[in-house]
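Example 3.
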Amino acid sequence: MRREQVFWGWGEPGAGPSLPEHAGELLREEIGVSGEIVSRPVELDAVALPPSALPAALRERLQAVAEVREDVEARVLRSRGKSYLDLLASRSGDFASAPDAVVVPADARAVASVLQLCSEYGVAVVPFGGGTSVVGGLAGERGRCSALVSLDLGRLDRVVSIDPWSLVAVFEPGIRLPEADAALRAQGLALGHVPQSYEWATVGGCAATRSAGQTSTGHGRIDEQVVALSCVTPVGSLSTLDAPGSAAGPALRELVLGSEGTLGVITSVALRVRRRVEASYDAWSVESFLAGAELLRALEQDGIAPDIARLSDEEETRTSLALAGTGTVGRRLLGGRCLLVCGWQGATGRASAARKLIRGGALPLGPAPGHAWEKSRFAGPHLRDDLMDRGVLVETIETATTWSNLERLYRAVLAALPGLHVGCHISHLYPTGASLYFTVLGAQSDDPVAQWGAFKDAASRAIVSAGGTITHHHAVGRDHAPYLGEEIGELGIELLRTVKTRCDPAGVMNPGKLLVD
Amino acid sequence: MRREQVFWGWGEPGAGPSLPEHAGELLREEIGVSGEIVSRPVELDAVALPPSALPAALRERLQAVAEVREDVEARVLRSRGKSYLDLLASRSGDFASAPDAVVVPADARAVASVLQLCSEYGVAVVPFGGGTSVVGGLAGERGRCSALVSLDLGRLDRVVSIDPWSLVAVFEPGIRLPEADAALRAQGLALGHVPQSYEWATVGGCAATRSAGQTSTGHGRIDEQVVALSCVTPVGSLSTLDAPGSAAGPALRELVLGSEGTLGVITSVALRVRRRVEASYDAWSVESFLAGAELLRALEQDGIAPDIARLSDEEETRTSLALAGTGTVGRRLLGGRCLLVCGWQGATGRASAARKLIRGGALPLGPAPGHAWEKSRFAGPHLRDDLMDRGVLVETIETATTWSNLERLYRAVLAALPGLHVGCHISHLYPTGASLYFTVLGAQSDDPVAQWGAFKDAASRAIVSAGGTITHHHAVGRDHAPYLGEEIGELGIELLRTVKTRCDPAGVMNPGKLLVD
């Protein structure tokens, strides 16, 4: 297997950033924990796995089309994603739901064979790309199935083609974003899709979960970048055409995007890519979160929004200052002001028009906060491991709505999370609205799983009641599935179920995700 | 009923432009017809309709929820759309497939009742918006149904809400585009969606058929403008959320867009709208169609494309000159050069950057050709009536593909249409490709229906073989349905059928459209 993350947390051992110097004070004074390490993940040696329930006859037939691994390490590493809940379980050594085997096909044809075989034997299949789901999308739910395999797409990692003329690149699903980007870089191109999970996420995983990426304001979400895809289901394959626009009926591409492995496995993705340009940053201090939101709305609706826009609310700004310390930049952010970071990729005309507009309502902070953001853009999940060591509850909650409903949704989510330390930022702009991303911290209770269940439910109910989407870019997985019906209605759920049943009559594809079984 | 088009052609009697002065010469020398009027549509009085087959019990129940009309005029006017084939039939007085009744509900609830009743009685329902389909989308196909009603959405024509903060306006489906635009104008806003059928098309019809609109390069296709919609099916309603971006599973909105009335009836559409700005134009003479395409690709991929871009090939340019006569502008287009018209809506910085780029490969023609284009932007279908009076075959064929496949597709379509007069333009730009729009003229044969069938089939086969979409913005309807399988594959067709069966178990919704029965 290729480079792997630690089973109990994010990234490779010791590779990520650690909690900054000032964190101890924050943890003691605001979160109510001592800041000392109070919990450590179990060692792999200590993990006990249930014996593999893979039927012997199926094992033999799978081995004819793909590699099949049943060793402890393979099964542990493919047991789940990287949500707070996932990590609580992994750190405690609970691998009761581990896959019975990890199946590693080498091409789309082998994927098709695996899906057919597992359908025949009624064995659940959880497609595994980068393993970075934070919504239980990789949970070992067996549904009505007798066993479960993790379908590792790591070997489907080829660059199929790059068309610099049309700015279209076709990838196999298992290629990780940095490798896809490296292939493009050789031709002066860039992926233009940079989620926080960039270092580990795969192209197929991003498409299957409708990833947004930190540059979505400038470059569009992955669902806007995908020009065509192929998906292998247990009953056959679907390939959509790469026409840049079409009126040839409903867009079936849009049925596969966001299907989270419940219909089949994405086996190729054609993406619109970008010319590679250097990024530049500027940052601003704005009077308040809502005033900053108004600035962002004006920029976006005037067509001069930055490619990366990130506005922290008062609490998130204060927390960032508390962690980073206050220099010149910090002093301009004191007194309840808010940090706005803008990232520009080329487009200097747009940037100067935007700066003129921003200057009317903000104090300039120079490029430093933007560079600091860029440096730490992938840090969040690494820091989470350190926080969990210290008994801190740490979760993120994200949604989106129209500009006119943004304040209502923001206040509703805050009101649903009393007693927790909650900061928020806007990081994805659209002409008609924006995203809200909340970071939730608190002291873990004695039953952190129940604690999580209670506040997650409260936040999710607040979101759907206030007209937000249950997820702007984390996907549905298992954790948001109970709330999807509120968003798309009974007929919406029925349509998804109908399509699933047509593609996956045996019900083996990623049970319990997207739709509640 | 409200303002109506003539039953045998486009628009109101005498309201449209007529063939220009120079047309006679062109018709004689290039099309091979005399230019004299050789055929006139029948009078309404001469139309014989089959007796209404609407079951008496259904009539009574429909009357309880909606207006029901069975008079000749209502039935004739709702018999079909405005394709060349439609007009051949209407002009000849063939109304054998006329609807048995026209049902006019006043709100979404009444629509639901009509769909349930027609399902119960097995009576086909053809939703009717602007009546402008050019692909047989409104043809009176009964499928397995005993009778057929046209569901006229003319009374669902309200502006539900306008949110200038979020730039979102919600419309009922039957409002025509000029009326929707007028409501927006009062708030300084604009629809930003202007198909050639603008004067008659409805918001719901545009959404149901994935209309592109002449400003799609700047403002996006209707499928990019729709932020949410509601659709009433025989088994219930689907309403999608207006979040500007979401990862909450497959986008069900995209299943309804382009469903062409085969699942149900769109009862409200939330559209992203624009601030209203004045348009300005410039035009250029480029060396060749392919050189012009390269210019457009550069503009689009540099992010400085005009909002409206229209590049005629050598033949279309020559024909325009032949019709308009050659002034100063014309002389700069002689010798096989091509006309490029650019329209700008605001965005002066973008326009100057673009002009600098274009100047390197083109001769300036000033604003006049752009203003001439704007003046005649809705003229095409009016002129078609005059041409049909003169025994001219007149059809348009449109597709789209990636930039790198554009020349191949262009040549393939031209090669499939020997003996006809074919001009082409590019009018919708995307980062990864563009549309191709062919205007086909010829002398009608003794059997114009068979003649149409032969060349349409040849062109359609050429398109799918060369990797183009079977339709970029005219939709599938009945005419493209036989070719859709080539584009989306067997499983794609099966998925559409599965969704249709779930929404419309009785099979009453617009039979024979989108999917071949």
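The CA atoms of residues 346 and 369 of chain B lie 19 Å apart. Chain B has a mean pLDDT of 96.
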